[in-house]
């Protein structure tokens, strides 16, 4: 039974004798004249047996054996000495040496001791090999089970969570993130866990450009960031990129070759699972659509919304829910017939479908009510979408055909998670409350939708002899009459303070008057505004001395007498809606002010159209 043997002895004659004798038996023999040299040899290679003299200059055989056992507790050692008391000594027994031989050594005794030691070493090697094979088998069995589970669950939401969980487990990674391809071919962030900070993870990545070559190779690759090594694992099925996983913070300090190998196997199955999941989702959507309008049914929508709520809670995201209602659809059905009512509904769904994103979902809740879910959309974005939706519906040919005979009373409401609620019922309730507010608003009661901006201003301002504005307990208050001369300036100061206090709040602010001056309270109040102010602020009027301002966008309107005669503030944001319009006369200032969101939004929309201002 041949093996590798290290002979350690300061006696050259014994070293040569042992080399000749053991080499003839097929062993690979290395000799060292002292313990220091022996430790150097052990550091370079592994030996099945160490045959060492006890008495040597410097480090003796006992000390060398102790050092060897520190490196490998199962190292086979045979002690050789001219002293007869070494065999069975307390030190030898404590060190657990294989045998003790006394010089001069009989050839038969040496070969017998070596054979026994080599047999024990071989048995240990075999046991270690079997243990490694069992561990490897268990590892592959575990990997196989994970791969089969990825193929047996077609639900995309479950898959996205499971993929990063399994990749992290097989690669001993504490942190993981996953991007999955969307309908437009971009890679969108779907899940992440561990020590990652979401703000440093891109929401979308293009599979083209720098990533293209790496993804086409379909092989994991390593990179380094500021903290540790990062393992990127592409998910590719039949040459089609389905996703990309990022693994970091390995428990072992670095990723090993078996990590890359297992990640590749798991990613191949995961890619097939994601591809199948997308196909199944597409089939489910086809089967869950309304036959007339192609909108999803309410059952699918509520299930989708519950998953979106789960993701928003887990990852700190936001989304908005919108509801639309055709309030007079029963009247359309009675006066124009069922076919025209269906045409109106079909036209509205078609118009909404043209302006939604791939990730947005529209559903038909009833004959006259529709729901929209807008992922990654805040409340201000939802309000802007309601405006775009109403405009898109008015431009749809099928809707126009119906409205030539009977105008449609379309009203929309929005709510945002978690601002307005943390479950589906709360969000729907909040949407309906806002729809009721719009039904009761001056915008609808005075039928202001078709009026140009300045015509609406004249109507809202009225005169001292004009009748009182209609009121409704459900609507936000609106007033007209005499206002304080200082109100216009004081409001600018308060709005500037609010914008500086919450620079991340999105909104639109229009301030108009005869002159755009550098000493306007708003301009002074925003001089110290942070550069990342999220609201867009515009000043409208005749140029005087305001050349540039970091937070303000001037819109110079030279020679417009209507602007010269009025002052106005129109403010619409996530947390506030307010409008002030006033005319200064010889006596008191006459004005109109309101916090009615529908009126404020309508004024802003018409102002943008009047002066060709870019919508938000």
Give the tags:
alpha/beta, seven-stranded mixed beta sheet, Rossmann fold, elongated, Alpha-Beta Plaits, Beta-Lactamase, 24% strand, Response regulator, six-stranded antiparallel beta sheet, 4 domains
Task: Explain what this protein looks like in three dimensions.
- It contains 20 helices and 23 strands.
- The protein has about 625 residues and is of the alpha/beta class.
- The protein folds into four domains: about 120 residues, Response regulator (Rossmann fold), CATH 3.40.50; about 140 residues, GAF domain (Beta-Lactamase, 2-Layer Sandwich), CATH 3.30.450; about 140 residues, Alpha-Beta Plaits; about 160 residues, Endonuclease, Chain A, CATH 3.30.870.
- The strands form four sheets. Strands 17-23-22-21-18-19-20 form a seven-stranded mixed β-sheet, sandwiched between helices. Strands 8-7-6-11-10-9 form a six-stranded antiparallel β-sheet.
- β18, α18 and β19 form a beta-alpha-beta unit.
- α5 runs parallel beside α8, α10 crosses α11 and α16 crosses α20.
- The chain is elongated, with a radius of gyration of 40 Å.
- About 35% of the residues are buried.
- Keywords: Phosphoprotein.
- This is Response regulator.
């Amino acid at each position: 039974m041949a093996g590798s043997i290290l002979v350690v002895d300061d006696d050259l004659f014994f070293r040569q004798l042992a080399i000749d004798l053991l080499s003839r038996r097929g062993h690979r023999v290395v000799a060292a004249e002292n313990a220091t040299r022996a430790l150097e040899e052990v550091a370079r290679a592994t030996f099945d047996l160490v045959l060492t003299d006890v008495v040597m200059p410097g480090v003796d055989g006992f000390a060398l054996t102790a050092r060897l056992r520190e490196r490998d507790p199962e190292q086979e050692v045979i002690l050789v000495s001219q002293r007869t008391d070494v065999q069975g000594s307390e030190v030898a027994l404590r060190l657990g040496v294989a045998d003790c031989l006394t010089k001069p050594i009989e050839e038969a005794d040496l070969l017998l001791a070596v054979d026994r030691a080599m047999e024990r070493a071989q048995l240990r090697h075999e046991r270690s090999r079997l243990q490694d094979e069992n561990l490897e088998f268990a590892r592959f069995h575990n990997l196989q089970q994970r791969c089969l589970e990825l193929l047996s669950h077609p639900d995309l939401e479950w898959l996205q969570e499971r993929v990063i969980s399994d990749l992290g487990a097989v690669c001993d990674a504490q942190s993981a993130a996953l991007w999955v391809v969307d309908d437009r071919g971009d890679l969108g962030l779907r899940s992440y866990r561990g020590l990652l900070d979401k703000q440093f993870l891109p929401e979308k990545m293009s599979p083209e450009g720098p990533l293209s070559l790496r993804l086409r190779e379909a092989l994991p690759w390593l990179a380094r960031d500021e903290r540790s090594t990062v393992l990127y694992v592409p998910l590719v099925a039949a040459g089609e990129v389905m996703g990309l996983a990022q693994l970091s913070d390995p428990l072992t300090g670095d990723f090993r070759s078996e990590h890359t190998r297992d990640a590749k196997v798991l990613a191949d199955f995961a890619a097939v699972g994601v591809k199948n999941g997308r196909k199944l989702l597409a089939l489910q959507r086809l089967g869950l659509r309304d036959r007339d309008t192609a909108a999803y049914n309410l059952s699918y929508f509520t299930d989708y919304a519950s998953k979106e709520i789960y993701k928003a809670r887990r990852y700190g995201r936001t989304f908005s829910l919108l509801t639309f209602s055709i309030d007079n659809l029963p009247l359309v059905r009675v006066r124009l017939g069922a076919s025209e009512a269906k045409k109106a509904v079909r036209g509205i769904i078609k118009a909404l479908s043209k302006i939604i994103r791939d990730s947005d979902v529209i559903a038909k809740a009833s004959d006259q009510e529709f729901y929209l879910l807008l992922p990654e959309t805040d409340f201000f974005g939802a309000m802007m979408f309601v405006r775009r939706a109403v405009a898109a519906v008015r431009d749809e040919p099928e809707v126009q055909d119906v409205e030539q005979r009977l105008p449609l009373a379309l009203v929309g409401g929005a709510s945002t998670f978690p601002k307005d609620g943390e479950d589906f019922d709360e969000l729907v309730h909040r949407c309906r409350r806002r729809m009721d507010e719009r039904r009761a608003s001056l915008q609808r009661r005075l039928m202001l939708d078709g009026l140009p901006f300045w015509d609406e201003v004249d109507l809202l301002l009225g005169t001292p002899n004009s009748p009182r504005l209609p009121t409704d307990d459900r609507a936000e208050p609106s007033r007209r009459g005499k206002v304080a001369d200082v109100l216009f300036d004081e409001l600018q100061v308060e709005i500037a303070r609010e914008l500086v206090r919450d620079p991340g709040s999105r909104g639109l602010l229009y301030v108009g008057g005869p002159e755009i001056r550098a000493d306007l309270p708003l301009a002074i109040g925003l001089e110290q505004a942070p550069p990342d102010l999220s609201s867009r602020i515009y000043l409208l009027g005749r140029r005087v001395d305001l050349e540039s301002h970091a937070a303000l966008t001037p819109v110079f309107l030279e020679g417009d007498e209507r602007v010269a005669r009025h002052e106005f503030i129109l403010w619409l944001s996530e947390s506030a809606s307010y409008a002030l319009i006033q005319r200064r006369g010889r006596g008191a200032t006459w004005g109109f002010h309101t916090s009615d969101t529908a009126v404020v939004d309508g004024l802003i929309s018409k102002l943008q159209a009047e002066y060709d201002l870019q919508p938000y």
